[in-house]
Amino acid sequence: MTTTISVEGMTCGHCEQTVEETLQEVPGVTDATADREAEQAKVDGDADASVLVEAVEDAGYTAHA
């Protein structure tokens, strides 16, 4: 299953990498790709969207499902 969440505050490639690494650490996530221009992240796996949003917000970004 692929979940797309909105992520605000990514301004560079390092931000994308941080969001991707943060999401990949969430249990149940098999892959994550962040796109700063689209202001979103696509996440593969069975993690709940609310857990994904919380992880991204804990990393310092604004997110919503």
UniProtKB/TrEMBL annotation:
<dbReference type="GO" id="GO:0046872">
    <property type="term" value="F:metal ion binding"/>
</dbReference>
<dbReference type="InterPro" id="IPR006121">
    <property type="entry name" value="HMA_dom"/>
</dbReference>
<keyword id="KW-0614">Plasmid</keyword>
<dbReference type="InterPro" id="IPR036163">
    <property type="entry name" value="HMA_dom_sf"/>
</dbReference>
<dbReference type="Pfam" id="PF00403">
    <property type="entry name" value="HMA"/>
</dbReference>
<protein>
    <submittedName>
        <fullName>Heavy-metal-associated domain-containing protein</fullName>
    </submittedName>
</protein>
<feature type="domain" description="HMA">
    <location>
        <begin position="1"/>
        <end position="64"/>
    </location>
</feature>
